[in-house]
Amino acid sequence: MLEGVHLRSDGFKELPGGEPTGFNKSEGTLKLGLWPVEGQRFELKLGLSDETSHEDYLGLTLADLEQDPHQRYAASALGLMRFQRTQAVLSWEAEAGSELRVRTVAYHQALQRAWTKLNGFANGTDIHSLLQADPSGGTAALYLAILRGEEDSQGAEQALLIGTNDRRFQSVGLQSEARWTHTLGPVAGTLETGLRLHQDRVVRLHDEKGYDMLDGALVDRGEDLQVTTDSLSVAQALALHAHEELDFGALILLPGGRVEVVRTFVDEEEADTRVVGLPGIAAMLRPDPLLDIFAGLHRGFSPVSPGQAPEVRPELAWTAETGLRLHREEALAEVVGFLVDYANLTGECTMSSGCDSDAIGQQFNGGRALVLGVEALGQLRPAVGPFHLPLQASYAYTHSSFLSDFRSDFSQFGDVQAGDRLPYSPEHQLGGRLALEHERFDLGAGASWRSAMLDVAGDFPATETDVPALLLVDAAVGVRVHRLVGLRVVGSNLADAATLTSWRPMGARPTPPRMVMLSVTVGEG
Fold first, then answer.
1. What contacts 173, CB < 8 A, 6 or more positions away?
2. Chain segment 422-471, per-residue pLDDT in tens
3. Could you give the maximum distance between any two Cα atoms of the chain, in Å?
4. Mean of all residue pLDDT scores within the chain
5. pTM of the model
6. How far from 337 is each of 111, 324, 390, 399, 410, CA to CA, in Å?
C-alpha cells in the first residue's frame, strides 16, 4: 500500500505587512506485507513527513481579539516552523493454532524541528501579563505598541528577541507481546504478556538575537547570535506487563500490572534511575444481557524528565472509575463516575504554556490534587419508514482541586491554596447531535458547549483574564449521486464564534473561523 497526502492552507490570520500565515504539509507512507508460511506475517512500514508552518506563539489582547480575532501583531512576522520526520516499523506476527499469538515490533522514528519565533523583550518584560493587562498608558503601553508595530524600538532594552528552537528527536525500540487463550473448567481466559525496550534521545540547540521594530517591520540589530541551550538528553526504559482477562460468564475480571525501569542521562552523564510498579484491576458484571456494570482501579505514572532539580518528583496517581451501561439494538445509555487522586501533580514549563524562555524544560511539583466527575452518554437511532433519526447527547462534569498550599514558579500554578482548581479544566461540557439518514442521503447538525476555564490555578467565578464559555455549532450533508460517487459538505463553527480559547502561550487566541469543506468519495459506500 502506498499513500500520499498533501495539505496546504493560506491560514486564517493576517499580518499587517501581508506576510504568509499558512502552512504546507506532505506525508508519504509505504506498507509492504509478506506471508512466507501459513500463520506468519511480516510487515514493513516506512513513513516520511515534511511541514513548513508560518506560525508564532504571540497572541493578542482581549480588546484586539474582540475587534479583529484573526489579526496578528507585526512582532510575530518571522514565525516559521519547519520539520521533517522519518519512520520505520518492522513487525512479525505468528500464530500457533487458535490459542497462542505472538507479535514483535522493531521501530525507529526521527524528527528534526526548527521553530523560529518571538521569545520576548530583551529586558525580560512578561508578554503574557502585558497582553492580559492591555495597558492604555505608561511604559507598558509603549511595549504593547511595539508588538503591534505602531511604535519603534528605542535602544537595546526595547529590542525583541527572535530565536530558533532547533531540536532533533530520535526514538528506537523493540517490543514483543504474546496472547494465550485458554480455559480452566467453566472459566475462559486470555493472558497477555509483553516486554518493551525503548530509548528516547533529543538534542536541543536554541539561539536568539535582537531585532528592532522600525516602521512596523522587524529589523536585525546586527548583533551576534546567542546560544541559549545546547544539550543532549537521553531516556532508556524497560517495561514489562502482564494482563489477564477471566470470563466467568456473567462476570469478567481483568487483573494486570506493569513494571517500568527508567534511566535518564544529561550530556551523557546518568541523571536518574527509577523503578515503579503499576498494578490495576477491572471488573464487569452483566446481570442481564442488556445491562453492564463495570469498575476499575489503576495506578498511573509519569517519569521525571532528564536534568531536573533533585526535589522534582515523578507524577503518581490512582485512577478509579465505575459505571453502568444499558444497550438495546438502536439505544444506548451510559453513566460513568471517575476519580483521579494525584500523589504529586507535575507541571512542565514550555513555550506553549507561557513560561519564560530561561525556564523552558523545567518541571515543578504540584503536590496532591484530586480530579473527580461524571460522564453521561445517550444514543437513539429510531426508524421511521425508510429513514433513521440518530440522536446523541453527552454531558461531563469535572471538579478539580489542589489539596495543599504551596508556591510554584510554574506560570499556571503560582500561589496555590488548598481547594484551588486546576487551570484549563472546564467544569461542564455538553454536546448533542441530531441527524436524518436515508440510503441515498443524510443530514445532521450538532452543537458542543463547555463552561469557562481558569488561566491560572484559583477558583470560580472566572474573571476577564480567564477563558470564557464556548459554544460551537456544526452541520453536515451527504448525498450519494451515483452507486460509486458520494458528495459531502461539512461546516464547522457555523455561528462564526470568535471566542477566546486560551491565554497561552502569549496572549489571547481565538477559535478558528467558520469553515466549509466539500469532499468527493469514489468507491463503494
1. 106, 107, 196, 197, 198, 199
2. 999 999 999 999 999 999 999 999 999 999 999 999 998 878 889 999 99
3. 84
4. 93
5. 0.89
6. 39, 9, 25, 12, 30
Strand (E) or helix (H) holding 148? helix 138-148
Taking 70 as the threshold, does the pLDDT of residue 127 lie above it? Answer: yes
Q: Say if residues 190 and 179 touch (Cβ distance below 8 Å).
A: yes
Identify the burial level of 422 via C-beta atoms within 10 angstroms of its C-beta, where 0-12 means exposed, 13-18 middle and 19 or more buried.
buried
Q: List, in order, residues 6 or more apart from 26 with CB less than 8 Å away.
A: 4, 5, 6, 7, 49, 50, 51
The position carrying cell 507585526 is: 74
Collapsed DSSP state (helix, strand, coil) of residue 78: coil
The reported pLDDT for the residue numbered 337 is 98
* pLDDT above 70 coverage of the chain, percent: 97
Amino acid, res. 245: E
Q: Which three cell numbers stand for residue 272?
A: 536518574
Assess contact for 22 and 14: CB atoms under 8 A. Answer: no
Q: How far apart are CA 379 and CA 290, in angstroms?
A: 15
Please tell me the number of Cα atoms within 13 Å of 134 on its side-chain side: 14
Q: Any idea what DSSP says for residue 462?
A: P
* Between 248 and 406, the higher pLDDT residue: 248
Instruction: Using CB atoms within 10 Å of the CB of residue 506, give its burial: 0 to 12 exposed, 13 to 18 middle, 19+ buried.
Output: buried
Centre a 10 Å sphere on the Cβ of residue 392 and count the other Cβ atoms it contains: 17
Q: What are φ and ψ of residue 130, in 5° steps?
A: -60, -45
